[in-house]
Design brief:
about 550 residues; alpha/beta; Rossmann fold; six-stranded mixed sheet; about 40% helix; globular
Length: about 550
């Protein structure tokens, strides 16, 4: 392999005297793809950030010797290679010249990493102006070409767009274009596909692989998605609690894992509870039923026509389905397919046409009339951190539904009900002393999602709308939450409307499946019919991409 492009030795990171990374060693060869995997809190992201000294208030020691982006090129041409430098001891002025030019980074969430006040073209052009000394016009033309290279349609128009005007996949492509603007020798990719659909994940991985080969770039991939590691990486390093517990060639580590933690990660694929596969009784009540459900939004028309009338964007076109008690309907599709709009209509939060009944009633779009339906239909959102108020205690969060739907309950009874709801989702005072007085930020992602489920269950609904309930969680936590949802469904005969882009989650949870694209229902049927014998080409693409 020759000399490594990056050689990390005895890297230690601490915050306020508390050590979070404990003397790890790894190296990356030129053109190599190394995956750093582990659960949240394992130290993998802070490791990547510390290489460029981007981890604020972190005390970092050890060495990170970088050979230089053009070392191989200079050696091949007979010129002396650039002298290696220790990234952890360089002055800030020298490191600033390396960031973005020699080592670039793709951050996990492009919506927060991109500046909302500047167009994506301006942000990419800025990199070219700073590091390549191009004129403004040349830099903007280069930005458009980079967007085209990443596969964004109409790159000249998209370059003028602001981050919120792009889809998740387009924002991630814009981030990749910015990172690759100066053809760096090393790319640090922090969960670059976590928030993307399965087909988009495949496209982004293929794009990164193509650009990596074309530019001879090395990649450090930070992820908890083992399918990505299998598909993309050459080697893998497994982190647990700030230590690398195992590393080696991907095929060898996955086929013969040596460390118990590695085996735990590999065994964390969502699995179907055998009891969850039981068929619904013939006389089971229908919890939710839709016939010809249609949801549309008004949009401005271009030109002078927009002065006089508005156009229409149809987000859901003639969807029909029914969910019996104790069953799960899984709705799968890419971003923009209409599945989240379908969920919002099912919750009575969007106007719709057609027929939609929940618990034998129809949404009236009136607070007083819909109050009983809101008790029957509850929701668990994708991101528990943003869906739980940071200013409310656990007790206030979980009791909130009782205060609305059973306002006459005595405080002591509400408290008992809250304690029971928390126990039902596996959270007790014995595990978490002072549980009811704690706040959401004091819990992990999986624990926050359990709080969200307890909040939904406390008023005994008959249907839960699950909007990507595990996409923000690690694989091991995802498996626990899905197991909890299956257990609650068995015990309470709950119905679920499950919105997801993860085929593995659908296989673990759903009884019936509905496939959506661009607002259309392409096919629907039982789990085995749709996923094992898909009729539509788009469904086959989704299954293959997973």
């Amino acid at each position: 392999m020759g000399a490594p492009l990056l050689d990390v030795q005895n890297l230690r990171i601490s915050f306020a005297g508390k050590s979070v990374v404990h003397g790890i060693d790894f190296s990356i060869a030129p053109g190599e793809k190394l995956a750093l995997v582990g659960e949240s809190g394992s130290g993998k992201t802070v490791t990547a950030l510390s290489l460029l000294r981007l981890a604020q208030n972190a005390a970092v020691s050890g060495k990170a010797v970088f050979a230089g982006v053009d070392a191989a090129e200079r050696t091949a041409s007979g010129a002396p290679p650039k002298a290696p430098v220790d990234l952890l001891s360089l002055p800030e002025s020298s490191l600033r010249g390396i960031r973005g030019r020699d080592i670039a980074m793709i951050f996990q969430e492009p919506m927060t990493a991109l500046n909302p006040l500047y167009s994506v073209g301006d942000q990419i052009a800025e990199v070219l102006e700073l590091h390549k000394s191009l004129s403004r016009a040349e830099a903007m033309q280069g930005a458009i070409q980079l967007l085209a290279d990443t596969g964004i349609p109409e790159p000249a128009r998209r370059a003028m767009a602001f981050p919120h005007q792009l889809s998740g996949g387009q924002r991630q492509r814009a981030m990749i274009a910015m990172a690759l603007a100066c053809q760096p020798g090393l790319l640090l990719a922090d969960e670059p596909t976590t928030a993307l659909d399965v087909t988009l994940r495949g496209q982004i991985l293929d794009l990164l692989g193509d650009l990596q080969q074309r530019n001879g770039m090395a990649v450090l991939l930070i992820t908890h998605d083992l399918n990505l590691v299998r598909r993309f990486a050459d080697r893998v390093a497994v982190m647990e609690n700030g230590r690398i517990v195992e590393q080696g060639v991907v095929a060898e580590v996955f086929a013969r894992p040596q460390h118990p933690y590695t085996r735990k990660l590999i065994d964390s694929k969502p699995r179907r509870d055998g009891l969850a596969a039981a068929s619904a009784a013939a006389d089971a009540a229908i919890t939710m039923k839709a016939q010809g459900l249609r949801v549309s939004y008004p949009v401005p028309l271009p030109g002078i026509r927009g002065w006089f009338r508005r156009g229409e964007f149809v987000a859901v076109k003639e969807a029909s389905f029914q969910i019996p008690a104790g069953r799960t309907l899984g709705v799968i599709g890419e971003s923009g397919s209409g599945k989240s709009t379908l969920a919002l209509a099912s919750l009575g939060l969007l106007p719709f046409s057609g027929q939609l009944q929940a618990a034998g009633q129809v949404w009236g779009r009136e607070a007083a009339r819909d109050k009983t339906m809101r008790r029957a239909v509850q929701v668990v959102f994708q991101d528990p951190f943003s869906s739980l108020s940071p200013r409310m205690s656990v007790e206030a969060i979980v009791e909130e539904g009782l205060r609305v739907h059973e306002p006459d309950l005595a405080p002591s009874v509400r408290r008992e009900r809250a304690i029971q709801a928390l126990a039902d989702v596996g959270m007790t005072e014995a595990q978490f002393p002072g549980l009811l007085q704690r706040y959401p930020h004091e819990f992990s992602g999986g624990q926050r999602q359990r709080l969200a489920i307890a909040r939904a269950l406390i008023i005994n609904p008959s249907l839960l709308v699950l909007d990507e309930p595990t996409s923000a969680l690690d694989v091991t936590i995802q498996k626990q939450v899905l197991g909890l949802l299956q257990k609650l469904q068995r015990e309470r005969s709950l119905s679920y409307l499950l919105i997801t882009h993860d085929v593995d989650v659908i296989r673990a949870m759903a009884h019936e499946v509905m496939v959506m694209k661009d607002g259309d229902v392409l096919e629907s049927g039982s789990l085995s019919e749709v996923l094992d014998s898909p009729r539509h080409p788009y469904t086959r693409v989704l299954v293959t991409a997973a």
